Amino acid sequence: MITLRNVQKSDLEELVVIENEGFTNEEAATREAFLERIKLITDTFIVAEKDGVIVGYINGPVIPLLYITDDLFEEIKENPKKGGYQSILGVAVSKKARNLGIARILINKMEQLVKEYERQGITLTCKQELVSFYEKLGFVNHGISESQHGGVSWYNMVKLQENMD
Q1: Rounded-to-integer distance, Cα 128 and Cα 119, Å
Q2: Has this prediction a pTM greater than 0.85?
Q3: What is the pLDDT, as a whole number, of residue 150?
Q4: Based on the structure, what is the number of domains in the chain?
Q5: In what order do the strands lie in the sheet with 85-88?
Q6: Which residues pair with 4 in a beta bridge?
Q7: Where in the sequence is the domain holding 98, given as residue range(s)?
Q8: Is the pLDDT of residue 40 over 80?
Q9: Are 139 and 159 spatial neighbours (Cβ–Cβ below 8 Å)?
Q10: CATH code of the domain containing 45
C-alpha cells in the first residue's frame, strides 16, 4: 500500500537519489534546491512511501502565473494560503517502483490540495514523451514552453480546477 505524507528534512538523501534516477544531471534539482523546497513549501512537497521506503515524490510552489518560469528552479517563495496556480517542478518515482500508478496517486493528491486551498489549477512542464501521460490525467497541452531548463524542449501542461473530478 502507498502512503502519502509531507516531506521532512530527513528525506533529503533518498529524494536526491530518486531525482537523479528520473532526470538528467542538467534537469535534476540540486541538493540546495531540495533543501529550499523542504524549508519553504512543505505543504506542497508530498512524499509517497511503500513499506516505509520512499518510492516517489511531487513538489512545486504556488505561483501567480499560468506557466512555470525557469527562475522557479533557482528561487521559490512560501505558498500563499489561497489562490494562485499549483506548479509541479518535480514528480519522480524510483526505478524499482515504476508502473504502479504512484505518479497518478501523487498528482491526485495535488488536485485535492488545489481544491482545498482554492487554487486555479495545476501547471507543469514535461518532455514530449510524457505529454500523452498527462493528457490521460486530464491536462491540456498548451504547446511548447519558453523554459530552457536543462537545455531541452518542454511542453506547458495545464489542468484547471473546474476540470478536476
Answers
A1: 26
A2: yes
A3: 84
A4: 1
A5: 62-63, 85-88, 121-126, 155-160, 140-144
A6: 48
A7: 2-163
A8: yes
A9: yes
A10: 3.40.630.30
